[in-house]
Amino acid sequence: MRNTYSVQELMESLNYSTLDELLKDQKRDFTKLFGFNPETPIELELKFQSMSEMIDAYNELKFNTKFNALYKLQHHAYKDFTLVVSGQETLFDYLGSNEPNLLTLSRITGVDFDVYFEQSYTGTQFTGKVVNGELLARQCLVEVNDVIPALTLGLLNQIGKTTEEFDLLLTRIIPFKSNTIL
Fold it and tell me: Where are the domains of the chain?
């Protein structure tokens, strides 16, 4: 058994011809199994090197009407130099090709920052570094449990909408086996 899969390889192993079909089926299974629809929009944490960089980014996000229409913003409750940004449906919406986005923020302000996302319920994590408006050192790790795969796969729609989006975020699917505790 392989250690990791791309989303395309996952689709093939589960006999899906399209990603849209996989996302819809898994979201339906999640809702059926757990009795609620997953939350949207999702939240990201932006970690800055200094207070002045965080304030510059905060002011741009808060007072630039293009950003203000897209994002809700707050200071992190206990992490220094960290903002919490919400308002978008997918991780790729924050960091992808449609502008303005958080990469645009970095280019406008000249501020670099770390991006962190941890999905509620699953522990799926994304980490990345935005430098001069470019997304570097990125990875998205999706751990899929063999007992309840719908727990993780049902929330894949919060990462991206196309295989290209998943690939650009360097998404890897990591299957793991659970141990029974008696």
Answer: 7-176
